[in-house]
What we know:
CATH topology: Beta-Lactamase
Strand content: 25-35%
Order of helices and strands: HEEHEHEEEEEEHH
Strand order of the largest sheet: 2-1-5-4-3
Amino acid sequence: MTQTGYFQSAQFLDLLGADGVVSRVDGFLSCQGVTVSEELLLPVMTKLQSFSARRIASSNMLGALDPSATSYASQASGALYIGLTGETGDYLLLLRRELVQTLVWAGNPDRASSLDESGRLRPRASFAAWKKTVRGQSLPWSDVELENAFWCASNCFGCERRTSCTNHKSTFATSQNMML
């Protein structure tokens, strides 16, 4: 299996709870699952790279990182960036679809109170159910998924050294069995 083949499997996407992955390894771009073009993702990726810690960064609301991300929110609203190398810019970008949620409130939270004719504050008059639809967000990346991403980047794809990527093949096969 090639280096890029490790994360081109359904098990890898399942391991990190992703719907798709865009990767660049040794200048080779590849996509698996539900993705959008790398060109559209570049602004988001640049932001994620800039605030990555341990070569890992995530967001469950890409539109907050780059307003143009709202144009593809139904395909990708969340991303988990995994930097594989510093020198070549190799990376994995795992994507999650939009999770549309309907929040139900006991009355409109924006109108919790009002003023009467004399200017005194009065509580809201109605507690009728008020609904708000939230779009442009994915399920947040859990701490376990972030740790799994770091572990994979460190142990499976640690090809900064490039000394023996064949050793990483057996490590990855073992890690898949251990983590699933």
